[in-house]
């Protein structure tokens, strides 16, 4: 489980300096390890909103168990620059996430925080769902789906974003158990199927039937659209032989490099474990002890809870 959480933060940090670069730019100058500066002029190892929201979610689970409004309260303290940042500053935030947190802070009722329009399907809930996936891993598939959809909905309440989160939450526990990826994908898909409305079967088709892993790279995008992000992460995990290679491949797809790498890092971190993360990448991580502390506390909390569920 530690590999999954740290793998996500490390992937985010590696992708930050080249966020928004095109695939063409990156193929001329591919990322091969830790860099600094670039897009946001941050020091090497700086992680972004992806990890901030993942850590806030983890912290909420550690202190309060399953309590979605408490997660939202913590997202607000992050947005206000009071917690969950590597250097005390918020330098990157998705539009849908910002709008949702602002609605929350203005007193809107819980059902109205997350955007529900088709254009609200960015990858902003998928990038922070891993701690919840780990926390709910011993529950029934239907409960996993319900919790993931609710937690996605804090900021991303369109069914497409919610279903991508639910799929990922069904998949991660199987990856942790060492299932081969394609078998885990088909099991996750089978468990998700009863919850997929007709209108979402088309957009999610390549994920649900597993065919995305066989697509040529020209048909894989690293954009901020939640379906692109999940497809790209599955593709990198399936077509690269290690955590390290999958995360670099995710970044070098271009566009939303930090988030594609964060989601790919969570999945391949779960598949290959903590020791597959290059030590040099962990060493470079900003506020490394803090990040590791939060991740370790969540893993301890889950281990304590497991026998009771
Ligand atoms: Mg980011």
How would you characterize the overall build of this protein?
Pfam families: ADP_ribosyl_GH. With 309 residues, the chain is mainly α. It has 16 helices and no strands. The radius of gyration is 17 Å and the shape is globular. 53% of the residues are buried. The mean pLDDT is 97. The structure holds magnesium ion.
Q: What keywords describe this structure?
A:
ADP-ribosylglycohydrolase fold; 16 helices; mainly alpha; 309 residues; binds magnesium ion
Tell me the major beta sheet.
none
Name of the CATH class = Mainly Alpha
Radius of gyration: 17 Å
* Overall 3D shape: globular
Helix fraction by DSSP (H/I, runs of at least 4): 55-70%
Helical run tally: 16
The CATH architecture comes to Orthogonal Bundle
Low-confidence stretches: none
- CATH superfamily, by name, is ADP-ribosylation/Crystallin J1
Bound ions, cofactors and other small molecules, one mention each: magnesium ion
Family: Belongs to the ADP-ribosylglycohydrolase family.
Pfam family, one: ADP_ribosyl_GH
Protein name: ADP-ribosylglycohydrolase family protein
Organism: Nannocystis radixulma
């Amino acid at each position: 489980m530690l590999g999954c959480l740290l793998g996500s933060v490390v992937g985010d940090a590696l992708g930050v300096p080249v966020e928004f670069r095109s695939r063409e730019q990156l193929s001329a100058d591919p990322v091969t390890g830790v860099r600094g500066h670039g897009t946001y002029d941050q020091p090497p190892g700086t992680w972004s909103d992806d990890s901030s929201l993942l850590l806030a979610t983890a912290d909420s689970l550690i202190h309060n168990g399953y309590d979605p409004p408490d997660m939202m309260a913590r997202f607000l303290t992050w947005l206000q620059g009071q917690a969950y940042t590597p250097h005390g500053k918020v330098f990157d935030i998705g539009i849908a996430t910002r709008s949702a947190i602002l609605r929350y802070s203005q007193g809107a009722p819980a059902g109205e925080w997350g955007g529900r329009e088709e254009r609200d399907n960015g990858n902003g809930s998928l990038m922070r769902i891993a701690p919840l996936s780990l926390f709910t891993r011993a529950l029934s598939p239907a409960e996993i789906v319900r919790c993931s959809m609710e937690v996605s909905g804090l900021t991303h309440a369109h069914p497409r974003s919610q279903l991508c989160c639910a799929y990922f939450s069904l998949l991660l526990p199987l990856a942790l158990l060492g299932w081969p990826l394609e078998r885990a994908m088909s099991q996750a898909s089978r468990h998700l199927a009863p919850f997929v409305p007709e209108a979402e079967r088309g957009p999610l088709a390549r994920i649900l039937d597993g065919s995305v892993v066989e697509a040529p790279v020209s048909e894989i995008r690293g954009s901020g659209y939640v379906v692109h992000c999940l497809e790209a992460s599955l593709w990198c995990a399936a077509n690269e032989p290690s955590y390290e290679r999958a995360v670099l491949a995710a970044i070098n797809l271009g566009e939303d490099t930090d988030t594609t790498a964060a989601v790919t890092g969570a999945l391949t971190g779960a598949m290959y474990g903590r020791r597959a993360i290059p030590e040099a990448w962990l060493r470079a991580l900003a506020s490394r002890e803090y990040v590791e502390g939060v991740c370790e506390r969540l893993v301890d909390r889950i281990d304590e809870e497991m026998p009771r569920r």
